[in-house]
Design a protein that fits this description.
- By secondary structure, the chain is mostly helical.
- 62% of the residues lie in helices and 0% in strands.
- It has a single domain (19-211), classed as Vanadium-containing Chloroperoxidase, domain 1 (Up-down Bundle).
- It starts with 18 loop residues before the first helix and ends with a helix.
- InterPro entries: PAP2/HPO, PAP2/HPO_sf.
């Protein structure tokens, strides 16, 4: 009889998956497993459930709204042109961070870990997605910005770095994110600072903005 017509490619079983596919699947499985194991503050009944309130305070310290409101207030109260320039660029950095994280989350649409409790402080629509961690992105961005533009003693500089690390680690401990969400967030925040430096706002480049203050 006539030979059977070949099946469409999408209907064929892939018996020999690529090495890259196997590697990515393995990494994803390790990421999910390790993130769940490290989610020790994901609930009151978790291994470190008693530390959950402290972790949530740390969570708020890295949230975008306190940073935006604080920066805007400082910008309105400042009477120094140099301070206003730094604060205006910090405000620009925070807004850029919010937009980029929202765009990536909307494109990737990775769900939150199954052990996460949706009791976060002030969420918006894209916050139901997990990749990347906006807190980690903001922590890395603010850390680089502060270390570059504020004159701080060494102990304070160490505290700024520790804050960024603790905020990032708390995302996994609270069960909010997987480890890869946090790692990519840190890399994205680090890169966004470079964009802010490249597009630095000054009275010469953005006179209209500085005229408002």
């Amino acid at each position: 009889g006539a030979a059977a017509a070949p099946l469409p490619e999408e209907d064929c079983m892939k018996l020999n998956p690529s090495f890259v596919g196997i590697a990515l699947s393995s990494l994803l499985a390790i990421d999910l497993w390790a993130s769940k194991r490290l989610g020790v503050c994901a609930g009151e009944g978790s291994a470190w459930g008693s530390a959950r309130p402290l972790m949530k305070v740390i969570e708020v310290s890295g949230h975008g709204i306190p940073w935006l409101l604080g920066t805007f207030y400082g910008l309105c109260q400042s009477d120094s042109s140099a301070a206003r320039e730094v604060l205006l660029n910090l405000l620009f950095a925070l807004l850029l961070d919010l937009v980029m994280v929202a765009v990536v989350k909307g494109l990737v649409k990775r769900p939150r870990p199954t052990h996460n409790k949706m009791d976060m402080f002030v969420t918006i629509s894209v916050d139901k997605y997990s990749f990347p961690s906006g807190h980690a992105t903001r922590a890395a961005l603010v850390c680089r910005f502060v270390l570059r533009h504020l004159v701080l003693a060494v102990p304070l500089r160490v505290l700024v770095v520790l804050w960024a690390l603790i905020v990032s680690i708390s995302r996994v401990m609270l069960g909010r994110h997987n480890m890869t969400d946090v790692l990519f967030g840190l890399l994205l925040g680090y890169a966004l600072y470079g964009v802010v430096e490249h597009c630095w706002l000054s009275p010469a480049t953005a006179p209209a903005l500085f005229a408002l203050w």
